[in-house]
Design a protein that fits this description.
globular, disordered N terminus, 732 residues, alpha+beta, disordered C terminus
Length: 732
Amino acid sequence: MRTALIALLVTASAVVVSADEGMWLPDQLPRVADRLEAAGLGTPPERFADLTGHPMGAIVSLGGCSASFVSPQGLVATNHHCAYGSIQYNSSAERNLLADGFLAATLEEELPAAPGSRVFVTESVEDVTERILASVPAGADGAARFAAVEEAEKRLIAECEQAPGYRCKVASFHGGAMYRLYRQLEIRDVRLVYAPASSVGKFGGDVDNWMWPRHTGDFSFLRAWVGPDGRPADPSPDNVPYRPKHWLRVGADGVEPGDFVMVAGFPGRTSRYRLASEVAEAIEWSYPQRVARNREALAIIERETAGRPDAAIAYAAVSSGLNNSLKNAEGMLAGFAHSKSVERKRALEAELAAWISATPERKAEWGGALTELEALVEEGRAHRARDRELGSLAYNQMISAARTAYRLARERERPDAERKMGYQERDLRTIRGRLERMSRSFDAQVDRALLQRTLERYAALPPTERLPVLDQWFGIAGDGDPAAAISSTLDAMYAETALVDADRRLALLDADRKSLEESTDPFVRLAVAMYDTDRALEAEEEALEGRLLEARPRFVKAHLAFQAARGQEVYPDANGTLRVTFGTVAGYSPQDAVEYLPFTTAAGLADKATGVEPFDAPRPLLEAIASSDFGPYAATSLGTLPVCFVASLDSTGGNSGSATLDAEGRLVGLLFDGNWESMISDWDFLPDVTRSIHVDVRFMLWVMDRVDRAWRLLEEMGVKPAFSGAASPSAP
């Protein structure tokens, strides 16, 4: 045993490496073939550049999280926290699936996912840069440029969606220097199949969130269903499981230290090509604001749901998201404190400026690009405090429902092609699904308390930054106590409104402008009163964005040319489109004399378990660990069951649920987090300490097999259960 331990430590130390930067577009992979080969990929990278082939054809988006098909019957693997909203939607105080977990014994027992849930299957990608940019009139100002780009995008999307069942989008890259049209099959009937208990799926909770070592079984399964003809359809008992062209095979033997791994998914947003001043603003203002507000919101939710289990379940997903965002922001600030990101950005900008100035040709093309962009960014900061408070109103469910309904009624007065994006006929299912979710995620007492605090912060703004319509409505324009005036107004609004009823909220979506303007409901009346001011502010924002659509691409193109002169291939910032990132299974050293190994084990999970949330692992799981009953799922190098591992690859939010693939394209885990030291990777990349955290497929399979007896699903995935002779299957 001592010899094996020494060998493990030596092996682990040998693979402490620098992370491999880059969230690459799949078609870029052949151009970084040398890096892929050095990392350990033994097959041609062109294989992973083909979106309609295997394995990339199995990678799907959930519209905020990533996922993958893992069976020929449309079974979808993703993170537990990505399915959390659907688990919460199906939970109640009497049947708490969040606490107990869920396993459908048959296809018929699978539960509907939360309203609006989708599985998006990417079928094609087309470069439409020339068509977008050609639509912008010569000499267009900011407003005209924004409108021209938006109209061009709508035309492209309308053409793309002529065939039913598809959802298309135009994605902008490099600040508007490049545009691509993505065509995705939109599967609308999504069902919850299996989720372990939260004491597995969220083991460690917010204490361990973004931390390594980690022992979280962050996985769950959904299923995509379609009509009998195989095409996307609304939820119906007549529907059948979707049969994907490609699905991932499971690499049940997992990976070892130093092995190549690749992640394919849909990372959300990064800002690595932003200016030094924008990074400084994030450090000095944006993230401190987020930390303070999230703490405040969490405290309000905890206070208002105390002793009310149904309300606590309703806000479980909201609280989880707030906690995740809070810790992310805290990690950002901690990382920035030691990274010198701003200094390095400023140095790079100085190098770029010198490079541009070195030749007349560069000066003619890019001279002034940096200063022009800097001026626009500074202009955008002028009303940041006001804009943050007004943005917070969108999170109030009552105000949001009323404003959405009235805006929709106004937009419906125009032909569909002329409506604003987000309010066209193609958007109605999404809007309705959002309001339907409120029936399981709304509590008037909590909603009112959160809105009270938002309005108190708004009232503290300088008078020149406030809006007359809001000041008058809530009685905060005079010399009285703003908090008291707000409270009195809200008491009346929540007492008088009928929108606390789910059916009445949904009925708003079918109302026309006249009936809404004649409504006596206070939230509808407020939405009507705010409409003109909202549109004026929107126009200001769009005009500035239009100017940025000209200035930022100019700066980014200069940066790309500068890097190309250095022989560097440059990946675009993440923007919710399909990306591939790669590296190796490797530990890291966060500080002097500290070294983290690449794997955590079942023994570590048991050591961490206290029986008290969030370290309240299920008793059957702990008993199986105590007996070392791991079957074929123990790792060769560890001699025990792995739980999670870290890898030296590049990821960010939206990558949650991404399939982790080995060199053969087999599923060996699911990415679910980044380490604490890598939090600033949205803005900057620190190769020595950046790691992504993955739940090991062997732990997933063991929990499914030994603990929860999900044998039907294992067989569907092509995995032979090792413990199926022990007892008859039963739900967790």
